[in-house]
Structure formats: C-alpha cells, structure tokens
Amino acid sequence: MLGREKVFMDLKAVLKDAQKNGRAILAANFYNLETLQGIAKAASELKSPVILQLTRGSIEYMGLNTAVALARSVIYDYGLQAWLHLDHGDSIDLVQRCLDAGFDSVMIDGSEKPFVENINLTRKVVELAKPYGAMVEAELGYVPKLGQDDNKLGFTEPDEAKKFVRETKTDALAVAIGSAHGFYKQTPKLDLERLKQIHEAVDIPLVLHGGSGIPAEQLKAAIKNGISKINVATETKNAFMKSLAEEMKENAEIDLRKVFPKGIEAVKKLIGEKLKIVGNG
What we know:
Layout: H1 4-20, E1 25-29, H2 33-45, E2 50-54, H3 56-62, H4 64-78, E3 82-89, H5 92-100, E4 105-108, H6 115-129, E5 135-140, H7 158-168, E6 172-175, H8 192-201, E7 206-208, H9 216-224, E8 227-232, H10 234-248, H11 256-278
Parallel strand pairs: 1-2, 1-8, 2-3, 3-4, 4-5, 5-6, 6-7, 7-8
C-alpha cells in the first residue's frame, strides 16, 4: 500500500490530470467481496486506476473494519492503483470514523441543507481531513437519491459553485446537471452548457453522481466539459443480482462458491465497459 500522504497527493493529481486531458476516473461502489472482486478484475486487466466507494449502508452491512480490510487486501492482491472513498457521508461522526479507519477520501453530502449550512458543514470536514491527508468531496445542487422526486429542479449554479469552493476549500465538487441516483425512467439529458460554466468558474475536479444508465456519448461529453470522477453504483448491484437470479432459475446448486463467480464476471464486464468509456481502459 502507498503511504497516506502519497495516496492523497496522487489522487488529487490523478483527478486534475484526468480533467486536463479529457479523461475521468471511475468511482465504483462495492457491497461485498464478490462485487469488489468484479471491480478489481476489470481494473487490473485494463490497468486502470479506480476509486472504490462505500456508503453508510454498505459500511453498516459489512462492518467498517471488515470493509476496509477487504478493500486494502484486494488493492494489494490485484496490484491496483486505487483509493478508498466514503460516498455520501451524512455526518461528521461517520466521516471521522472513516478517516480513523484509513480512508483516502471522504465525501460530506450537505446538498439538501441550505447553502450556508452546506458551506459550514463542508468547511468543518475539510479542516477535519487535513491531519489525515485525505481528500474531501462535497456536493452542491439537487441530485435525486433513491425514492426522491427526480422531476424536482435544483441544478448547481456556477456563481454559487464558485463561492462554495472559495469558502470551503473542498478538493472536489459533485454537481447537479441532470443526473440522478438509481434507475432512470427515461433517458437523462445532462445540462452540458451549465457544466461548462461551472468548470470555468471553479478550478477543482468535478464529480458526476448517478452515472448508472447515462448513455456513453453523454458521459464522454461531460468528461470533455470538466467531469473527472464518475460514480457508478446501481448498475453494479443490478448486474450482480440479475446474474445470480438467472443462474438459479434452473440450478439447485447450494455451493455459493460455484454460483457467485457468475456475479463476479457480470460486474467485471460492466465495470470494464465503464472504464473504457471514461478513457482508462
């Protein structure tokens, strides 16, 4: 494993370099050993950097120390250039626990709070992360989460983004430009002109949440206009579970060691396709 300070500097440098050169780094959520292995196999075969993400739900499911140990072991075993990131951190306490556990990057999501509260919360996390040498991602604007109204508008305003970054000193910013978490009811249409304006207003890596289901041409256009980190989660869960469901339709096998590899391969195929789209495969 790389040292904490080196990992932090490398991640920021990689994201900035990707932004400068029209590429992005894929940030893939994992939920168990098998989804983690699928991601790792794809990144290893394509010799691609990858960000491994955990949400509160996944941390509570696996246990913080277990999840971190799995990620670090897989990074080492597959020889990956990879970082461990907290996705959608919803409290100072969770961020602190993840920093203490050795996360390379943390997200604090104050996007549903009033603008000033989001600034104050993000500023606290930026200060909290400094001694750990960890990168901080924040979010500004309304990116619908699972179960939320995906018709509600709340796109990131370029002027607000500029003020937010200036006052918080966050390292990366997730922006709302038309994406959403979960499955899309219709083909999304990203506001690329708005993204371009945000990119011109702030000089830090920009993040696109809700990458699952967005057509490849739109992802490439978003990368061209400043996105340097693209999150994928829903499609990973879907690929894994659909593969297992198909496998078990006419299969009475009870040995999960013979069944789960199908799910691993499904995740590997999906992540491989995404890595090629973002320009690192």
